[in-house]
TrEMBL record:
Coiled coil location: none
UniProt similarity note: Belongs to the glycosyl hydrolase 31 family.
EC number: 3.2.1.177
A single GO BP: carbohydrate metabolic process
Region entry Disordered, spans: 76-110
A UniProt-annotated Pfam family: Glyco_hydro_31_2nd
Enzyme class per UniProt: hydrolase
Name recorded for this polypeptide: alpha-D-xyloside xylohydrolase
Domain Glycoside hydrolase family 31 TIM barrel: start-end pairs: 263-577
Keywords from the UniProt entry: Glycosidase, Hydrolase
Amino acid sequence: MKFTDGFWLMREGVRASYATEIRDLRVEENRFTAYASVKKVAARGDTLNTPLITVECFSPAEGVIGVRTTHHAGKARRGPDFTLYPGDGSAPGARTRQEGGTTELTSGPLTLRMDGDGPWGITFLGPDGRHLTGAGPKGTAFATTPDGVHHMIAQLALDVGENVYGLGERFTPYVKNGQSVDIWQADGGTSSEQAYKNIPFYLSSRGYGVFVNHPGKVSFEVGSEAVGQVQFSVEDQTLEYYIVAGPTPKEVLSRYTALTGRPALPPAWSFGLWLTTSFCTSYDEATVTSFVDGMAERGIPLSVFHFDCFWMREYQWSDFLWDPEVFPDPEGMLARLKERGLRISMWINPYIAQKSALFAEAAGHGYLVRRPDGDIWQWDLWQPGMALVDFTNPAAAAWYNGKLRLLLDQGVDCFKTDFGERIPTDVVWHDGSDPERMHNYYAQIYNRTVFDLLERERGTGEAVLFARSATAGGQQYPVHWGGDCFASFTAMAESLRGGLSLSLSGFGFWSHDIGGFEGTPDPAVFKRWLAFGLLSSHSRLHGNVSYRVPWEFGEEAVDVARKFTLLKHRLMPYLYAVAAEAHRTGVPVMRPMLAEFPGDPATRTLDRQYMLGPDLLVAPVFTEDGEVEYYVPEGTWTSLLTGETVTGPAWRQETHGFDSLPLLVRDGAVLPWGTDDQRPDGDWLDHLTLRVFGSAAGERTVTVPDLTGAAAASFHVVRDAAGVRVTAEGTGRPYRVGVEETGAAGEGTGTVTVA
């Protein structure tokens, strides 16, 4: 939200007050509080009839410093609030220091400095005293607008050349400088400024992050009002934000996800290919069986089959009952599908249509959200007379999960938790939550409710969602997909931008609808999207009004689907190790180039390519004719598909067939390469190959996980003038070593030397 009229004036009717000077300071061992007047105090009379802003500075975790600014502290806090870890609000190593008029708070590599002798200001310093950002004379404030609404405001300085990323899954330009961004959930597709996953966290190219700890609407002006500042404001009496230290993007994300929650590790089977019925298409068991048979006949391994909305009867979503006319024997059908090795996913949402028998049941128990006058909140958008489950009521959450448990008993493995964005604010919640704060936060309790059920019923490590909406902390409940995109190259690029922004917002796993959702893709779009989708963390074929089985788009599409599905399966020892890293550290599987190469200025704006883990560069092709332009960082890179080498730093212009794309392996990488290309959750140590790339001398330890993400075996690889030496730990099984440069190879169970 903008408050000013240019640099000098305020907008009509806006009254703003800025922290001007410190009038009192209370310093404790690991935190301090400043009381700032909003005008220069020259005489005692200046202390009358004027506000103070209370500024609390503290550290909830190592390398994280929080600032809480408050005007009137008496406002009732009705919640909800983000859950932060470890939760005690005080980092054990945080220390304050005073010298003259300067007060400092240091936590790990991060220091907050406040100078009491000069004009108001807060400075944040990184390692070795390097200036990161700060709140200057107008950086701590409150304002009222003509409608009488009270806003707390903060501004943090942008340095010359500094870029801002993140703020959730945003489909607008990847670099957020110059944008106005409202953190407010919306069902707006991928071609607008609205977003399904709004995260009040941004990451700076200067090696720090900023998290605004407010679950309601946060309005960001990223160099768009004061062009040298990132401004954020909330309609509240208190504003709390955290500076998260780096200095690398991966360190920022690790600290941020330690604070807001690390992602669970999805089961290995979920990394295979998902196929759905699509949405508005016609399907029954015969249709589903024909799809599964068709994939098998064409040699395309399938891991998950998903039933979208119309598995239930029309006008009755959600009643969690199969349409008996279309699926007369659901238990038998699911058993037949599972006999073929498939996992089953079901579409659900948190709404109850009036025609559903569950409406009266839920209404009678008080499980539906109500308006202030006591009426149940309803509308006809999406489903007629639709109401909303009140997950703030523990009994309602248990009731909802009871319906899902019946599906799990039938053989369902996971759920697509669709929707959760259009949450009304003219309502009363069971637990008394503030409706404005609950609008964004609803996605969290919705997805958490379903994820927790899956963990209880299936066990830790076996729970996975396909979720559309999320807020901060939502990364704990993977996987999230990119929502409703058009079937076009433009939308394919939009989707990637959204995924890159989400990854820099702390989300470790992300997917999208291969081929696009709206409309029917041109075969060229579908084939190009196949390669991109099968080189994403999770891969799903899904559409709206048309099927997404590959043969609908020609035999070449079948070949492309087969090739990249088999490739992904062979990459699973590598990919699942990266997934386990995301679970442990919060560093995402799909990484913007900036995350791996923060010191290379050329990577700071790249939004049409990414790193899949630390060692694979992927540049999807967004053209029918196969022309692609991409950037190669420093070093010698090897095409995983052709074996050709490329030396960077360099920009490349290439032309690729539909069965190809730039897929480069980093110099010095050691890829664990599986033998089983038929499933994502096979025995990865069965005749494993370690593929050693490049010629650079060095050492690398490669871990092959088991299906829980724990290390099943590790291989220490040394390359020097004498050749390649490999030492294995944790396994006595045979493996193969292949040196890509020379083609030399060796077999061994302990130490292998390849000369």
